[in-house]
Amino acid sequence: MRNLTDLKNAARTWQTMVDNNHALLLRESGHDAGWWAEQARGAGLRNDAELRDWMRDKHGITGYAQYAVSWEMFGYPEFMLRDADELINAQYAGHPALRPIADAFLAWAAETEGVEIQLRKGYVSLHSPRRKFAQVTRANNTSVDLTLRLDAPPAGRLTAVKVRAGDFFDRKVRLTSVEEVDDDVLDFLAKALHHNS
């Protein structure tokens, strides 16, 4: 099994989302974030709320496209500037016994064709070319949750998760040791990937 340093090139951080939001802004408006920031400064906008209202009400730009301009004007949140190692290290700081569980899932993802790893501040998400299909989260001081978008009845280690309407991540496996990342758990992952590809 490879360590996270070896997986670094396979893992994406917030940069993927940043790039996507910049591309969305350009597609929707024909202008990049620098141009919009210059216009907003010229309009005397001083904070994120004013910027978002101005973009929506005056220019019809909403949602993720607004983030690109907000970040250009007001800077990125600190956690978005971290690299893959920093993000995963922070998630498992003080919980070294749980880190091998996360590393096992990262190794599986890096070695499985069609899987993209995206590291976030509090979790790791796994994506097929179509959409997110799994999330790895340190649940507490003694366990890690593998939450899945999987159309399968809860049985054995695969349990149901109560979710709000429209949330399809309603199955999970809770793990307390790397030995529990066995063929059964990896089969759940493979099925979730297949169902969401």
Q: pLDDT below 50 for ≥5 consecutive residues: which ranges? A: 1-10
Give the beta-strand count.
7
| Helical amount | 40-55%
Specify the number of helices: 8
Determine Rg (CA atoms, Å).
19 Å
Largest sheet: 7 strands, mixed
Q: What overall form do the CA principal axes indicate?
A: elongated
What is the strand arrangement across the widest sheet?
Answer: 1-2-3-4-5-7-6
Mean pLDDT: 87
Our count of domains comes out at 2
Counting helices, strands and paired strands, the structural category is alpha+beta
Question: How would you portray this structure in words?
Answer:
- A 7-stranded mixed β-sheet has the order 1-2-3-4-5-7-6.
- Helix 2 packs across helix 5, helix 3 (33-42) packs across helix 5 (64-74) and helix 4 packs across helix 5.
- The relative contact order is 0.12.
- The two termini are 25 Å apart.
- The chain is α+β, with helices and mostly antiparallel strands and 197 residues long.
- It is elongated and about 60 Å long.
- The chain has 2 domains: 15-79, no CATH class; 83-195.
- It is built from 8 helices and 7 strands; from the N terminus they run H-E-H-H-H-H-H-H-E-E-E-E-E-E-H.
- 44% of the residues lie in helices and 15% in strands.
- It has helices at residues 4-7, 15-29, 33-42, 48-59, 64-74, 84-91, 99-111, 183-195, and strands spanning 11-12, 116-119, 124-127, 132-138, 144-148, 159-160, 171-175.
- The model is unreliable at 1-10 (pLDDT under 50).
